[in-house]
Structure formats: structure tokens, C-alpha cells
Automatic annotation (TrEMBL):
Pfam families the UniProt entry points to: OMP_b-brl_3 (PF14905)
Domain of life: Bacteria
Name of this chain's protein: Outer membrane receptor proteins, mostly Fe transport
Keywords on record: Cell outer membrane, Membrane, Receptor, Signal
Organism whose genome encodes this protein: Epilithonimonas zeae
Keyword Membrane: yes
This protein's GO CC annotations: cell outer membrane
Residue ranges constituting the Outer membrane protein beta-barrel domain according to the UniProt record: 287-713
Amino acid sequence: MKAKILIAVIFFSGMISAQQTQKKTEEIKTIEEVKLNKKVFVKKSDRFVYDVASSPIAKGTNSFNLLQQTPMLSSTDGKTFKIMGKSNVVFYINGKKTLMDAEAITEMLKNTPSENIQRIEVVTVPGSEFQVEANEGVINIVMKKSKTNGYNGTLKMNNSQSFYNNPSSGVAFNLRQNKWSFNSNFNMGSYRERENYTLTNGNSTFQNNSVGTMDDPNKNYGGSINIDYEINKKQNLGFSYNMRYNKSFGSVLDMTNYENGILSNRTINQEDAQTRNHNFNLNYEVKTDTLGSKLSSNVSYLWFNRDKVSLGESFPLKADGSYSAFQQAVPQIINNYAANIDYIKKFRNESTFAIGSSYNYTNTDSDTRQNDFDGTQFVTNNTLSNHFIYKENIIGAYATFERKFSDKFSGKIGTRFEATLSTGDVVGKSDIGFERNYNNLLPYATLNYAINENNNITYSFSSRVRRPGFGQLNPSRTYFTPTNYIQNNPFMQASKNYNQEINYMYKNAFYANVSFNYADNAYGQLPLQGQTINNLTGEKIDFLRYIRTNYGNNKQIGLTLGMNKSWFGDIWTTNYSANFEYATFKGGVTKDPTSQPIEGITETLEPFVIDVKTLNTFFQANNMVRLSAKKDWFLGVNYWLMPTREVEMGTFYSQQSLDLSVKKIMGNFTFLVEVNDIFNSNIDDIRTKQANGSYNTVRSFKYGRELNINVTYNFGNQKLKKAREVKSANDAIRSRT
């Protein structure tokens, strides 16, 4: 009897258990059928966040193409990005500023699979903790992470056909084993650029026209190694090395010149150049509590070397002409030593306090040598030969405090202090030199208010310093023709910039941005027309000198309207934006501070006056259409238009580009075919005219129509965790090399 009861209990228990199991299974199946609509584009307190992992366009492409589809970002040259069509960009990866120069960053992005990215953060007004200048914005790329041991990698091959055929390839490899993380990449390629130039300048009595071509062959090699060791759960030690080598031998600029419509001469400039860039960084990080507080420190060394030698020749094409030539060597060596320490303290009330300090020492050595042909031999031109040594010390410190007051209201305030001590000297020329010591206190503030689930508004203010690039300070020339050239200026000073923005977002899809930017003591590259007169013979030579110099101030009021939204069940993804900017540029330049008196020669300059008030616009429409239910065929249709606009040095005529792409995903392979600038309409054309009748024109046609064929193969465990990216102490210096 007891046995029967026991059997019955077991039977009914089994039935109850089976019913519960079936019920749980049904619940699980029900849960699996629920579709979660995650927000793809959202506004945080001080940044916009684009959740790439939740976007339908993030499959089977590279990071560069993905950034082109990111709201607020645009690229009109296929090399660099701007935020809302105006602000320059500084790249961060996992919150750490990249260690590479602009060219290396482009190659890295084009060789990084988009599947590796979790989200992209766009910071339009960076806080005090960011090492940026002027009105630069920040793009922070957050990579996917996993604790899985193993390896993965990417092989990539690309072939580009424009005027010339340009192949490239790259490989990236990642490894994680317990406490060790390692990643590396290597890219190589050759590309040859072709440009057609038309240069015109003159006045009511004189006109000079130059037409010709530039051929510039390049070979690129680049790579990086990142190693991270987890000492324990609280401490990490990291090392990184980045290198870049560019070789451009045999570059030729061939121009035919006309004076007042009469054939004058032909000038040929031949150039050999190579650039080497090495950066080493050691990083230590320790977590101080369980809330995320941490202390990090970095020491870095940067070595940059660019060697350039050129031969410029002028061949007479008229009876009274004569042959002339010059040799020029323009080397530049930059050594930078840097260190920084940062501490972030997090509190339980969702507040964050951050403090940090940094030190940068930079030594640049530019020994420019120019030899002129005197009819029988080359002799040293002491006026244009300058051994320029520039030393710069920057001591920085910052503090920020961020507080979330409620679910709707949050804010962040901070300030950055920078003390700059710099000297510049030309060896053997006591009249060319300077010493500058200046301090800057740079406040920052942002307030964010989430009105409700669908509406968000933010106000931000920031002030920054913009320092000239090291190459711009080297008192050397870059020649188009013997009388048309760019003149660098060691006497350029830093400018002060003030930025304000109001951002509004509706339903995480539509946004509006109103901005105001003011630059005091702004600088740029301005055209100075002039004439040299030989006091003995009376011979007059007209020239056009583009001099880099401070000119005055500029103000910009901007409005950006944009939309990022998917339609018809993510079949069609759109990213549209329109930028409107009212700008005023005021100032001018009346003299060239780099000019040195030459015995027997008188030089006169025509003042260049800037008084511009203009409304500039920019439009962009990116479309990605999924062509198959399997999500393995995609069509891209992208278009941007930049109508005629006014800038400091004149009128920049309209530019536009229509790009088409087709993408096919086959397992671990991705095939991408792109046609860029289908109508060959992305042309640089800038024209300047002064009230006194002086004018000049620069038109450059770069053969923008281009066919790209990309093949990418991903291998290994694609959920592998990347090595921890670290911040280099000399990040702020690299953008100026």
C-alpha cells in the first residue's frame, strides 16, 4: 500500500513538474518573441551617443565608413572629419586619446571592422579633462569587450582606381590570455595623387597666370602594438608603440606661366620627402574603490622626423628670359617628452570629481637650407636659409565636478589652467627670435535637462587656446612657382577661443543645435601681393606670398538641424543634416614679419584687408538600404553639398559629391564596392578680390571620382576583448606635428 502511494506521489509530482517545465518553456518562448527597440541615438549629459551595436548599418563595413554614417559627422575629403560641418575632430578610443597622426588615424579607421565597435560618442563641446584646442570636438570610439580568452583578427585588401591605381592592404591581430591582452596592426599601401592647378593673381596693371599638374607618389607603412597586463583586479600596466613611415620620392609640380597673357616660362619643382613618426607610452592604472574611482598615470616620448629636399627650375619661354634654379632642404625634427596623472573619484550619489595635471616639453629643430643658381653654380642664400630652434613647455592642470541632481537634471563644471613658456631662435640671426610666457584659465560648464522621455535640452560653454602647428612656425617656404609660394611665420601667436552651444533632441532621432564661437587673435593663411625692385637695374618682379599670420577676430553663429532614423523595420536608414552659419571675419595684415632686408632690393606689399560677413551652408544626406531579408545585401546612397561660401582669404566656390556603394556579406567575408564623387564635382576653387583691385585665384582639381573595391576577412573569436587603450601624455602635441 505504501509502495502504491509512493508511486502515485512520484507520478503526480512528475506531472506537476512537467506542467511547470512546459509553462516555463512557453514563457521562455514568449519572452524570445518580444522585440526590444533599443535607442540607437541618445543624448547624455555632455555628449551624443550612437549605439552602433543596435544599428542596422554597422554590419560588414569599416570604422571610417561607419563614422560617415554617424549623426553630426561629415567628411568631404575622404580623409578627415568635421562635427556639424565646422568643428575639427580629435579621436579618442575607449576614453583615451589616440596616439597617431591624422594620416595614421585614417588608415586605422579604414582597417578596423565596424563589428568591433560598441558605440560612438560625439562631444561637441569637450570638458576640461579633454586635451583639445580651439573649437575642436571629440569622437570617442568605444570598442566591444569580452572576457573570453583566445584570438581574432582581420585581413583587408583594397584597390582604388582614380587617375592612378592605388592598392593597399592591412592585417590586425588581437590576443587575450588570462591577465594578458595584446593587439597589433600593420598597414601598407602605395598611392599616387594627381592634381591640376590653375593659379591667377594680379591687379589693374599686371596679371600672372599659371597652369599645370602635380604628381605625388607615396608609399605608406604603419602599425601599432598594445600590451596590457592585469597585475590584479585593481591594477593594470600597459605599454603601447605606434609608428608611421611615409616615402614620397619623385613628386613633380610642373607649371607653365603667363605674364599679361604672354608666355613667360615653365617651372618644374621636383621633391623627395620622407616622414618618420615613433611614439612610446607607458601607462599605470589603479582602481581605488568599487564605485569606479581610479588613479592613472602616463609617461610618453614622441619622435617626429620629416626630411624634404627639392629642386626648382625655371626654363625661359620668351626671348629675354633666362634660366634660374634653386635647391632647398627643409628638415624638421621634433622631440617631445610628456607625463600626466589623473584621478577620478565617484560617489554613491552619482557625482564624479576629477582632477589631473600634465607636463609637455617639446624641442623642434628645423635647419632650412636654400641655394640659388647664380649662372654658373649654386650659392647659399643666407636670407632664406634659417636654422630655427623652437622650445615649448606647457604645464597644465584641471578639475571637474559632475552631479546628477535628479532623473531630469544634471550638470558639470570645470576649469583648466595652462602655463606656456616658449622660445624661438634662428641660429646666427639675432633679429629673428622671441620669448613668450603666457597663462590661460579655461572654464567649462554644461547643464542638461530631460524635459520628458521625448525631449532633451543642453547648454554648454567652453574656452580654449589654439596654438600654431610646429611646421607653421618654421620660417621656410613652399613654392608653387618662384613668385607664388607659402611663407611660414615663427612670430604667429596663440589665439583664444570661446564656444557656446544649445542642443535640443526630440525622440532620440531629431536634433537642433545653436552655437556661437568667437576667436580672438585668430590666425590663418592669407595672400599678400607685392613687388621687389632692383635699385640698380630697376627690374620689377611681382609676387604672391601666402603668409601664415594672426589677422584679427572671427565670430560664428550656427544652426544645425538633423535627423537619424530607420524606416520600414530598419530596411531604410537615414542620416540627414543641414548646417547654417552666419560668420564675420575682421582684421587684416599689412606687413610680413619674416621679411629680411636685402642690399640693393626694395620690397613693397599691398595690405590685405578682411571684412567679411557671410551666410554659409552645408547639406548632407546619407541613406543605407537593406536589399535582402537575409541582411547580406546593402545599397548606400550618400550626397553632400557645400554651396559657395566666404572665408578669411576669399570666396570658396560650391562643392558637392554623390557616392554610391554596394555591400555583400558572405560569412566572415565582406565585399564592398564604392564609387565616390560620381560627377567629379568636389573641386577646390577659391578666389580673392580686394577693394584696390588686387585679386588671386587657386583652383585645384583632384580627380575625386574614384572606384574602390574592398575585401575583408574576419577570423578567430569575434567576441574577444581588446587590449586596454591607454592615454598618452603627449596627445596634445601630436596634432600639431
